[in-house]
Write a structure and sequence with these properties.
Blueprint: H1 2-25, E1 38-43, H2 45-48, H3 58-67, E2 73-74, E3 78-79, E4 95-98, H4 104-118, E5 123-126, H5 131-135, H6 140-157, E6 162-167, H7 178-198, E7 205-209, H8 227-241
Parallel strand pairs: 1-2, 1-4, 1-5, 5-6, 6-7
Antiparallel strand pairs: 3-4
Helix pairs in contact: 3-8, 4-6, 6-7
Length: about 250
């Protein structure tokens, strides 16, 4: 009798445990935003961040936008679980599309799926294009093709989208081999080409210089931003956004 009771209790406990795990792991889609100035931060770990180890630019950019009274909404299927102080009595908007370690090809493969979930962004912040391709030694030509295809998907999804694409900040000087340096130098020029060639009458592609003035003091490790680096990148983004945001 006692053995039967123990088995029954164990069975109920396992059912409750499995039920709790299902609830915790269940993916709940976020409602699509109806805000003006829907901003999609898109990229890899420099978008995602990993407090306290290193920073994303998103929090500093969000504070800049709040401080200047813009109406906007960060969108993305990802959420930031780090702790952030409130600012101006507002809670940080944690939505983004940053995937640590992802290459341009991986982002390209999943982009349509993400857009179908988030809805169309008005503005995309395309961070460090091809950065992980360079770190993994993948072909430069493939990265360029992937980045152009990413831009084309974004414009097909929303013919009026504005895409702000980084001429990316370098990694720490002691990891910048001749191969990495060559890749980044070529990509800086390629981003200008993409900006010129992919802009349309309704969709601007805007290159933003993140490398001039960027140095090792702005990095938390080999490639990721510390707080000062995040502020540096956020300021460069804000200087572009204030001229294109809808009032």
């Amino acid at each position: 009798m006692k053995l039967t009771l123990k088995i029954l209790v164990l069975g109920i406990s396992l059912m409750m445990f499995n039920s709790c795990n299902k609830d915790e792991n269940e993916i709940i889609s976020k409602p699509q935003s109806n805000s003006i100035n829907k901003i999609l931060p898109l990229g890899a770990s420099r978008v995602e961040g990993a407090r306290p180890a290193y920073e994303s630019f998103r929090y500093e950019l969000w504070k800049n936008l709040i401080d200047n009274n813009w109406t906007f909404d960060f969108i993305g299927t990802q959420s930031d679980n780090a702790s952030y102080a409130s600012f101006d009595n507002k809670i940080f908007d944690i939505d983004h599309e940053g995937r640590g370690g992802w290459t341009s090809g991986q982002i390209l493969d999943e982009l349509n799926s993400w857009l179908s979930e988030t809805g169309s962004p008005d503005i995309v912040l395309l961070s460090s294009p091809g950065g992980n391709d360079a770190l993994e030694g993948l072909p430069y030509e493939d990265a360029v093709e992937n980045i152009n295809s990413i831009v084309e998907i974004l414009q097909t999804n929303n013919p009026n989208v504005t895409i702000v694409i980084e001429q990316m900040a370098p990694g720490r000087s002691d990891i910048m081999t001749s191969e990495l340096t060559s890749f980044l130098d070529q990509m800086q020029q390629e981003v200008l080409n993409i900006s010129s060639n992919q802009s349309t009458s309704t969709s601007q592609v805007i290159a933003v210089d993140m490398f001039t003035g960027f140095d090792d003091s702005l990095l938390a490790d080999d490639v990721h931003y510390n707080e000062s680096g995040a502020e540096f990148i956020a300021t460069r983004y804000y200087n572009v956004l204030e001229s294109i945001l809808e009032e």
